[in-house]
Structure formats: C-alpha cells, structure tokens
Amino acid sequence: MNPGCCQPEYLRRPAAVSAGFTLIEMLVVIAIIAALTALIAGLTTTAGIGKVRNRAMTELRQYELAIETYHKKFGFYPPDNPNPNGADRPPLYYELAGKDPIPPNLVAALGVNGIVNTNQNFIPNVSPNRWAPSPGGGPLFLIFDYKGPNGQYNAWNYRSSKPEHNTESFDLWIDVVVGGKTYSIGNWKE
User: Fold this and answer.
1) Which entry of 27, 48, 56, 68 is 20 to 30 Å from 120 by CA?
2) Residues 10-30, buried b or exposed e (16+ Cβ, 10 A)?
3) What string of DSSP letters covers the chain?
4) 98-153, pLDDT tens digit by residue?
C-alpha cells in the first residue's frame, strides 16, 4: 500500500519556501544600519577634532614659546590690536618675525603705532603656509591652515592688553570648524 495515497493533498506537497523578507526583518536591518552609521559618523567627527586639536596645540606651544621669549627680552608681551573690533587681528606676525619697519599703510590697519624694533626672529621655523595676508592683500597674520568660522585664512587670535582668561599674561587661541561645529582651542584650556 502506498503510504501517501490516503493523505490529503496539502500533506503530500512540500511546504512553500518564502522568497522575501518580512516587514519586521527589514525594519531590524534598517535600524542596525542606522545605528552603525551614527556610530561611525560620531567617531569620525571625534577623530577629526582630535587631529585638528593636536596640530593646533603644537602650533600654540610654538607661538607661546616665541611670545615668552619676546617677553623675557623686552619685559612686556607683544602688543595686540587695541581696536575692539580688531582684537583678533594683532601685529603678532610682525613682532615675532622681526619684520621691521612695519609698512606705514599697515599701522592704521593693525591699530598700532608701530612695532618694537626687534630685528630678531622669534619664530625662525615658521613656514610660509603659517602666515597669510588678510583678504584684499592687507597685513600678514599668523594663520592656522584649517578652516575657521571666517574662512580658510584662519588667523590666530591674540590678546595681551586685556586678556580674559590669562589675566597675568596673554590669551592665544584659534577657532576651527569641524563637522559644522566651531571649536575654540586656546592657551587657557587643557
């Protein structure tokens, strides 16, 4: 006797195999991909700010040493721009690089009467990509060659006349943009 002869039709056929995903399986896969993407994006931004921060800190230490050497030689810190609207545009490049004399047309642009006649370069190893003219070919500034809130020529900010953070010395900082967010890296933070 044939064992399958008396069974109903639906019992004799093999079960149908589903060829697609269920809606829940699809949602789970999408959720996992979204979580991994968020994790990777977060790590990339963190790594990006870490890389930029380390580079900025290296330059910051170099300029701090130059400024302190200047202070030791002259008994005062290099002047900043006393103009409140231009406090972040100091004649620091001219002071530290020993550029003498300062061109007369730049005296008003920098908001100072001139520079100390140093004739000494306190930052001899600064490369040309670390200084640039302001837009329109104005004065030269020490820059950080990473995008800042005001564009690619991101000048170091310096304040010695009324420092907010290091009241006994000077404030030196740079603002950088990483992942659409502005980070301030300065000599009062660590």
Assistant:
1) 56
2) eeeeeeeeeeeeeeeeeeeee
3) --TTTTS-HHHHSPPPPP-S--HHHHHHHHHHHHHHHHHHHHHHHHHHHHHHHHHHHHHHHHHHHHHHHHHHHHSSPPP----GGGTT--SHHHHHHT--SPPHHHHHHHTSS--------S-TT--GGGEEEPTTT--EEEEESS-BTTBSSEEPEEE-SS-SS-TTS-EEEEEEEETTEEEEEETT--
4) 766 666 666 666 666 666 656 778 887 776 667 777 666 667 788 887 888 877 77
Q: Which two tokens stand for residue 165?
A: 């953070």
Residue by residue, what is the 3-state secondary structure of 103-138? CHHHHHHHCCCCCCCCCCCCCCCCCHHHEEECCCCC
Residues of the chain short of pLDDT 50, as ranges, are 87
The full set of domain ranges for the chain reads 23-186
For residue 115, the tally of other CB atoms under 10 A from its CB is 23
At 142, list the tokens.
Answer: 């020490």
Write out the two tokens for 86: 């231009």
Residue pair 117/102 in contact by the 8 Å Cβ criterion? no
The answer to whether the predicted template modeling score (pTM) of the entire model surpasses 0.85 is no
Q: Which residue is listed with tokens 């990339």?
A: 44
